[in-house]
Input
Amino acid sequence: MLKRYLEERILSDLQDKMVFISGPRQVGKTTLSKQIGNEFFPAKFQYLNWDNRQDRKNIIGGLLPGGNDLLIFDEIHKYRNWKNYLKGEYDKYKDKFKILVTGSARLDIYKKGEDSLLGRYHSYRLHPLSLNELSKQEISFKPFSELIFAEDSVKNKGLFSNLLKFGGFPEIFLKQNEKELRRWHNERADRLVKEDIRDTQNVRDISSLQVLLELLPQKVGSLFSLNSLREDLGVTHKTISRWVDIFERFYYHFRVYPFQSKLIKSLRKEPKLYLWDWSEVNDEDAKFENMVASHLLKFCHFLFDAEGYKAQLYYLRDRAQREVDFLVAVDDKPWFCLEAKNSFRGIPSSLIHFSKALKIPFAYEVVKEDGVDLIKSNIRIISASKFLSALV
Output
């Protein structure tokens, strides 16, 4: 069993509050929660799944199993009154047992306006496997300090290659079978639309939603326009906007927005889109960029959820059409920027321009090829298998 990167943080937070774990379907939320139960609350935890008829009946009836130190509620966000329910149970029983809540959608999107859970929980977003998580290397980082990289070992090169091909979702990564990968893509997409979204969202045109799901991987890495999708599907702007928001809430994709600063003539334009499962992307250049984006987002979410830093992932683009793929900022202050490339063929002028104009402490050109680690014009050119080792 893989030990996930959030396990110790979750266990620590359970000592004084509820813990919410959200993330995409099949990313390992249930496995992680049960591992915590088995390892730290042996024979004294209970797993309750809203999709199970008997568990659902007991939850609605206010019946909880006795003799447990930990209760795990899975998919309870599908319960219309879930926030009030958890608030009541926590206030009543917080001295008797711990509460761990998991869900395959953002746990803050349902029933806004109900009694607040503020002060009663900590929230984590569980991401797919990353290079550092698999290599189990100790990391040390502090905002605005230089990242610390591990040696570019044969092991890391192999992990990078397999992650790029199979993605970071545990089940399919561990199998590393191309046929199973294709089947997994089909089944995951089908369940997302026909089970998760249909169960909780009022969407009548399921077939068009499935068509949209087929189109989104083609948009990875480029400026994301709702108007072009609206024309492709023949629906209103309001409808396509809602559908895209729904997929984002269910962790199918995420959007990266341009960084705004008075120091550059920024464009207030469309975001760029990436998938949580980069293995669905067919174009190899876009897949590599998506994998880097996913690692950076995981890093930012960890800094926010576990460390309390207001970290955010952006990209850079100005009116002169200069662009840099990614910028990581803390409290809206640039920390480091990077450009993702297949191979090193010189430093992009836009990377030099933005790093100087915004006075960004560190700038990188992250390349797919192995064995690269150079410094030129204050830009570090580094292999992805080495660079990603510095992230979570």
Observations:
- The longest strand covers residues 333-341.
- The CA atoms of residues 27 and 210 lie 21 Å apart.
- The chain has a mean pLDDT of 94.
